[in-house]
Each structure stands twice: as structure tokens, then as C-alpha cells.
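Support request from a user on the community tier.

User writes: "When I paste my C-alpha cells into the form, the page sometimes reloads and wipes my input. The last time it worked, I copied everything first. Here is what I submitted, just in case something in the input itself triggers the reload:"
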């Protein structure tokens, strides 16, 4: 039995699709089962509720061999620690009491770097990894750079204004990955019964790109000029607060951007096993272009 958390989210939905394709028995934890496609609901066992609730995770993890763990976003949180460590504490108790064999969790690059302790959401993710590891379960953290898919949040600005923004230097080359590749790596680990112990699997995409590189590629794919606009870190945080984020979450996002600008995502050595296939050009053609032009 494989348990999938956040099965209606961007990554969790894709993980669920891939695991179901293998024929494995699947249980999902979901607040609102109606958000699952009807054909999916017919193929999974549903535990309704939040996976931050001890009673819910105890029901869901009973008899489970593997769990896909993703701490959901909480833009109005009072602290970054609450999003990652606080939310995950009940699950760690349930991993132990239900003798779950393996957990695959979504996390971030940066462990061991000088920036890791002051990187906002990344620091919270790494603390979550440590908490899960301390539960005694075999754990693989799927560690990621920024997602290509994050640009979908700026699709309207790309369409109407021809630009997108970040606080990160436009010339800073960094790895970036598609969530489809994160889901593929995660699903493979969930279905693989041969691994144990602690470790991580990085998802680096096939190339390092700067935001200026991305603007050039987007311009080619969309057949119009797209420009990257850098804003300062104070303005970046102010925009996030203006969009409804709590001060704590906006500061966590800003600290993460500052750490990435200082090289946080560049420390992981690129190898064949962590070089995932989706190129940014392909992602723009298949995902961004329909979102912007349709």
C-alpha cells in the first residue's frame, strides 16, 4: 500500500497518476475528495482530512509500505517552521507507530551550503527532512531547485506586459526543473522496494539557465519579446505581502531568493542520475505557451 498526500496539488497529482499507472494499491489523504477526478476516486482508497492531523495520518498510514510526503503551502502562516516542522510532527509519530517502511518527501537543494541556515523556505524544508529522518523511517528527500512551473503564476503578466520578475540577478545561472520530472522521480522511489536508510535524490533538470536565458527562450517560443525584470529584495517582499502573504511567509520567500542569488542551488554536482530530461524550451512549448496564448 502506497499513501499519497496532497493528491490534488501540482506535484502530488502527477505522482498519483504515475503510481496508479503501475497498478500499486493506493490510499490518498485529501480534504475535499470531490477535487479528485471521478475515475481516480474509483481507483484509490480515500482518507478525508488534513495530513497534519494525527488521527487522519494514523488511519491513512495503517498497513502502509510507503508514503509520499509533501508539506502543503500556507501563505498566511505565522512562521516558516510551522509550515514544515510543525505540520510534519504528527506524521512522524504515525510513521513510527504504524511501522511505515519508506517515505519519499519533497524538499530543496542546499544542504551543507553556507546559505542553508538562512534560506527561508529552504531552511524549513531541510529541518523537515531532519525531523522525518529522526523518526527512524527509511527516507529519501527529493531535493529540487526552483520549478519551471512557478512561472505560471506570472502568466498574466507575461501575456499582457511581456515581462516577468524576480529578485534574483538576471545573469545568475541555476538549475531549474519541471514538476513532471519531480513526480517521475518520486513515483519511481515510492514503487521501488529495494532501498532503505537515509538519502536524497536531486532533480536538476538538463541545464543551468539564468532568467535572461529564460526570457530569450520564452521570446522564441511565444514569438514575441519577453523581458526579465529584476526588482530589489524589499520590493519583492512588499509585492508578496500585497498578494496576501503573511509577513513571515513573505520574509521566508525573500530569504530563499537571496540565498539562491548567493549560489544555494549551485552546490549540487550535476551527474547523469540527477539530470532530468525536460528542457525549458520543451516546457515552454507544452505548458507555458497554452497558458499564455489560450
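"...and here is what came back when it finally went through:"
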Amino acid at each position: 500500500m502506497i499513501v499519497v498526500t496532497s493528491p490534488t496539488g501540482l506535484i502530488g497529482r502527477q505522482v498519483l497518476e504515475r503510481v496508479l499507472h503501475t497498478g500499486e494499491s493506493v490510499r490518498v489523504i485529501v480534504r475535499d475528495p470531490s477535487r479528485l477526478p471521478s475515475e481516480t476516486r474509483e481507483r484509490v482508497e480515500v482518507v478525508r482530512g488534513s495530513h497534519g492531523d494525527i488521527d487522519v495520518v494514523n488511519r491513512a498510514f495503517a498497513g502502509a509500505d510507503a508514503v509520499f510526503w509533501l508539506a502543503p503551502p500556507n501563505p498566511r502562516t505565522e512562521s516558516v517552521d510551522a509550515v514544515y516542522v510543525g505540520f510534519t510532527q504528527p506524521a512522524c509519530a504515525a510513521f513510527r507507530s504504524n511501522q511505515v517502511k519508506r517515505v519519499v518527501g519533497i524538499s530543496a537543494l542546499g544542504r551543507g551550503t553556507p546559505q542553508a541556515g538562512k534560506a527561508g523556505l529552504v531552511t524549513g524544508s531541510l529541518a523537515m527532512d531532519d525531523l522525518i529522518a529522526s523518526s527512524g523511517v527509511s527516507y529519501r528527500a527529493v531535493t529540487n531547485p526552483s520549478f519551471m512551473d512557478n512561472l505560471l503564476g506570472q502568466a498574466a503578466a507575461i501575456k499582457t506586459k511581456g515581462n516577468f520578475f524576480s529578485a534574483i540577478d538576471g545573469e545568475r545561472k541555476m538549475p531549474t526543473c519541471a514538476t513532471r520530472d519531480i513526480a517521475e522521480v518520486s513515483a519511481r522511489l515510492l514503487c521501488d522496494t529495494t532501498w532503505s536508510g537515509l538519502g536524497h535524490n536531486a532533480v536538476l533538470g538538463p541545464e543551468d539557465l539564468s532568467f535572461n536565458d529564460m526570457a530569450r527562450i520564452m521570446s522564441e517560443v511565444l514569438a514575441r519579446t519577453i523581458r526579465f525584470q529584476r526588482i530589489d529584495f524589499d520590493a519583492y517582499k512588499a509585492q508578496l505581502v500585497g498578494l496576501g502573504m503573511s509577513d513571515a511567509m513573505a520574509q521566508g520567500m525573500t530569504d530563499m531568493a537571496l540565498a539562491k542569488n548567493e549560489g544555494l542551488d549551485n552546490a549540487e554536482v550535476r551527474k547523469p542520475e540527477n539530470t532530468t530530461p525536460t528542457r525549458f524550451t520543451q516546457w515552454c512549448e507544452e505548458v507555458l505557451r497554452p497558458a499564455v496564448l489560450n
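Agent notes: The reload is a front-end session timeout and is unrelated to the input. Residues 51 and 57 are 6 Å apart (CA to CA). The radius of gyration is 19 Å. Escalated to web team.
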